[in-house]
Amino acid sequence: MGSTDSKLNFRKAVIQLTTKTQPVEATDDAFWDQFWADTATSVQDVFALVPAAEIRAVREESPSNLATLCYKAVEKLVQGAESGCHSEKEKQIVLNCSRLLTRVLPYIFEDPDWRGFFWSTVPGAGRGGQGEEDDEHARPLAESLLLAIADLLFCPDFTVQSHRRSTVDSAEDVHSLDSCEYIWEAGVGFAHSPQPNYIHDMNRMELLKLLLTCFSEAMYLPPAPESGSTNPWVQFFCSTENRHALPLFTSLLNTVCAYDPVGYGIPYNHLLFSDYREPLVEEAAQVLIVTLDHDSASSASPTVDGTTTGTAMDDADPPGPENLFVNYLSRIHREEDFQFILKGIARLLSNPLLQTYLPNSTKKIQFHQELLVLFWKLCDFNKKFLFFVLKSSDVLDILVPILFFLNDARADQSRVGLMHIGVFILLLLSGERNFGVRLNKPYSIRVPMDIPVFTGTHADLLIVVFHKIITSGHQRLQPLFDCLLTIVVNVSPYLKSLSMVTANKLLHLLEAFSTTWFLFSAAQNHHLVFFLLEVFNNIIQYQFDGNSNLVYAIIRKRSIFHQLANLPTDPPTIHKALQRRRRTPEPLSRTGSQEGTSMEGSRPAAPAEPGTLKTSLVATPGIDKLTEKSQVSEDGTLRSLEPEPQQSLEDGSPAKGEPSQAWREQRRPSTSSASGQWSPTPEWVLSWKSKLPLQTIMRLLQVLVPQVEKICIDKNVDPPVWYDTDVKLFEIQRV
Asked: How far is residue 155's CA from residue 14's CA, in Å, rounded to a whole number?
């Protein structure tokens, strides 16, 4: 932390800047040096001592002074990069300027009048001392800043270890330095792992934070409807103008993938000493995914609309400057490099899932969303890596953490971005046969999740978690339902044996989705029924022998398929179904509902924000008339259960209790909007009802139902004395 005197001097300089109405000349070093030469301020100090209101005041009232401040700060970074930052004072000046620019840049980006400031060759009017820019061929200020940051990230004794014995170094050596010999961490393309140095890590982190701030200008621009807008900061930094592009890309990637937050495995080690590497790893991951944001805007021709997904690396060279970071990532091809990357990302994604006997004894990282985006980019830009992942059993080490994060974030609207990237990764993986085959591996390592206990495979885990997301996520997840079920469709031909729990979950989803009020309430809802029928058909046709649990569940719930086959299409019934939806349904409150036994150590999902919908399929009306009142145990036998007063839709049991006013209020907005924009017609129902793929299932039922009934009749069982009579003390559930 900076000393009290340093803070006072720095604060005095800030006050002088905000109160001066006349422009201060750039040559007035005595004034400008107060901001960086005589102070030792931490980044926390800078943010506290330079309030937002004062930055905006200078921007509005003394724009020339703000321009000069930025120009002089960049100039000091350029000088530091050229000299090599040999003295402690030079290093401190570089850090102070970096922190000051990190603080000020967002307030320049937010003002449209300043938009071109950093890309102009003359930073401001009325200032002298422009000679340096002439030497740089009048580079825009942004380019000078980015090149200085890149040089400083490979500055011996500042951000990397010096390879020289003596301290005598010349400026020429800095310019001739081969930064590929100074890569920060062993891994892809580099075998030597430098000795850890927390001061270097902290200096790198400060510079990466400034780099991210530079890249963030895009956040202050309105979204462009056309796809012609690239981020000029990223575009320049990832171009051939940056001589450090390759070693920096490699350093960032290796730093992320080599990081082991558990360290030496000493319990509570993260409480005993600070981990200076984690903040660096997090910054490195963020810089990587921003530099790899190479979409259709920069990879497709201008005539293409915005639908390209940035896979142009497989095609001809894209027009315009090429993103070297994307280029390097797409060219990684050695198996040992793929193994290093996959192991590293899987280790970090699995970190929050670690279970220990000592609570809170291991360090838990927080940047899983960045890791998922990085993994997505790797798979998207490097198809060889994608295929390596799919043929490796380690793909399950990626799958399980993703399912953990999806389940954990399902009710938290603030993490909807995490939900999307997780689902999209699984959608990408599910398109390949190997992924479906890998899912048959038994699931034995119990990760703490609030899902029902089952004995089965990773496929069971995937489907059970998806069921949980659909039935107890928030409303903003509804657009993902198609993706979730598409993933299940994609893997279904390879699933050799689903557990009874999973089979019941699939049938429960079909039951909920095939109610008339749900089918008729939105134009796309029937797609979900088609997806599920396709899942059943694939398993029956390709994996019938091992899936007796699913076949048994289909037979038990055969009424659903008969109802679909006989779906009414006349206007009065359609109208009645929609009216039934608008009436007060029976509640399906999550409070008090228990879905069998939850896994040990599980915790409930984070609550949704106030005023948001906690469940997507809340309160299917009259579910007690739709769900058979029986539960199948793991061994396949039927048993009757005492009903709980309030059951969630999650477990497919009958819902009982008083009507819920809260549910009615939550549903009203979507009801009115749906009825105002679209209403079903008999012709529309007929258009898709005739295409329902029910033939395979109906044939199966036609053959198997008589056989099952005969088996039941042939058993030597005692006659059910009280069956089918009106017992009051408890409920007998019927098959």
From this structure: 30
Q: pTM of the entire structure?
A: 0.76
Other CB atoms closer than 10 Å to residue 648's CB: what's the count?
Answer: 23
Run of H or E residues at 723: none
Return the percent helix, strand and coil in the chain, to nearest 5: 60, 0, 40
At 661 the pLDDT is 32
Which amino acid is present at 264?
A: Y
As a whole number of Å, the end-to-end CA separation of the chain is 72
Angstrom distance (rounded) from CA 512 to CA 518: 8
Give every residue of the chain whose pLDDT is below 70, as ranges.
1-3, 6, 38-40, 122-137, 164-175, 224-229, 262-275, 294-321, 354-363, 581-677, 712-715, 717-720, 722-724, 730-735
Least Cα distance to 665 among 711, 612, 704 occurs for 612
| Helix/strand/coil (H/E/C) assignment for every residue in 396-457 | HHHHHHHHHHHHHHCCCHHHHHHHHHHHHHHHHHHCCHHHHHHCCCECCCCCCCCCECCCCE
- Residue 154 · residue 85 · CB < 8 Å: no
Closest CA to 510 of 487, 481, 483, 476: 481
Which residues face 457 on adjacent strands?
442
What's the CA gap between 388 and 379, in Å, rounded?
A: 10
3-state secondary structure of 187: strand
